[in-house]
Amino acid sequence: MTHAGLAGQARTRWLTLGEAAQLLGVDVTTLRGWADTGKVRVFRTPGGHRRFDAADLESLLRASPPRRTTGRPAEHALTAGGPPPREWLASRAWYARIGESSRKRVGALCGELMRILASIPGGEPVGPPHLAEARRIGTALGREVAGLGLTPAQTTEVFLHFKSHVTEMLTTPPRSGFGQIRSLRDTDAFLGEVLQAMMEAGDAAGTWAAEPHE
């Protein structure tokens, strides 16, 4: 590397994932998704940690001014103005009775979904292999959540919240043209397959909690 290149690296102000998310006014989960899908340039340390160039993020802020959040803190400006995913889950009455091991299993399955979804905006169209993976993960999720004592309505609510978060991640910062439309269409098809497989697996397991009577 040239002397000029080394000098440039020395002047770069590197930010951690948390620092970068705070600068952009988004949740770390959102920024991690943007980085994984190529919406924000990210660098990796030798230890595998994400680092962001502050100049990149400041340019992004100038190009896409943050939305108004009616005076709420920046970390709450996620998913159509709602709280971050973990905070939203913790606010559900049933969440406290779910054990840590179950949370980790569900989290691992959701992580698989995110890794597959990360390939969609990169130009890889959704095809039969993606949909087969969607059904596999959806089936595993359905069996897991049905055994947690959730009702079908509660399960659907959680899934739709997850889907809205994914949509927010795909459309912010906004992109124009057919590429974003195709990404959204493919993502909708993929997640629709996941939801159908989830509900079918829960029905087959026969362990859904009963819906409360009005």
Automatic annotation (TrEMBL):
GO terms for biological process: regulation of DNA-templated transcription. It comes from the Bacteria. CDD domains: HTH_MerR-trunc (cd04762). InterPro entries: DNA-bd_dom_put_sf, HTH_17, MerR-type_HTH_dom, SinI_DNA-bd. Residues 14-62 form the HTH merR-type domain. It holds the Pfam family HTH_17. Gene3D superfamilies: 1.10.1660.10. GO terms for molecular function: DNA binding. Residues 64-83 are annotated as: Disordered. This is Helix-turn-helix domain-containing protein. It comes from Candidatus Segetimicrobium genomatis.
